[in-house]
Specification:
globular, 30% helix, Rossmann fold, 5 helices, 183 residues, 8 strands
């Protein structure tokens, strides 16, 4: 079921998402709509979960979307394999909105950079914030999350794996060896 050391189990993930949802509400100033945009795939699942939690906490509707960053990656031309493309669904105006980008793991910052670029193809939000379940460090770009579930000090030789019921059949976050994860 899991390879590597478990750092968050299903209950830990649920509690972490509840905390992040409360932090988002506390920091949202109420000017303009609030939108969550999850990065495909697991970030989109986490955004759906946060959306349910936020909908219980705020009176105004919280917008929900998802973005695929496959064609916004800075390594697209050098990748050997064809990217697996998923749906981008942003069917609401983002102009003037506070958009919280949601991802599972923040590593180098390149995925978030691509998500911001993709987001701006849809309009000009008033503010863009970042919520991540796990921040493992090793940034290559000046990207910093606004909402962090768990800081995970890791080496570059390790891999952080996020599992969600909707895709993997169970919830949890593990840290394992990068080589065994690739196999």
């Amino acid at each position: 079921m899991t390879n590597g050391k478990v750092v968050l189990d299903g209950d830990d993930m649920r509690r972490t998402l509840v905390r992040i949802s409360h932090e988002i509400v506390e920091r949202h100033d109420g000017s303009g709509p609030l939108a969550l945009v999850g990065i495909q795939r697991r970030g989109a699942v986490l955004a759906q979960r946060l959306h349910l939690l936020l909908s219980e906490l705020v009176r105004d509707p919280v917008l929900l979307g998802q973005v695929d960053i496959s064609f916004y990656r800075d390594d697209l031309a050098t990748r050997l394999e064809t990217p697996e493309v998923h749906a981008t669904e942003i069917d609401f105006p983002i102009d003037g909105a506070t958009v919280v980008i949601v991802d599972d793991v923040l590593f180098t910052g390149r995925t978030v950079r691509a998500a911001i670029e993709a987001l701006f193809a849809y309009g000009r939000p008033a503010r863009v914030q970042l919520a991540v379940l796990a921040d493992r460090g090793h940034r290559e770009l000046p990207i910093r999350p606004d909402f962090i579930g768990k800081n995970l000090p890791t080496s570059r030789d390790e891999r952080v794996n996020v599992h969600v019921v909707e895709i993997d059949g169970h919830d949890g976050v593990t840290i394992g060896d990068a080589e065994s994860a690739a196999a």
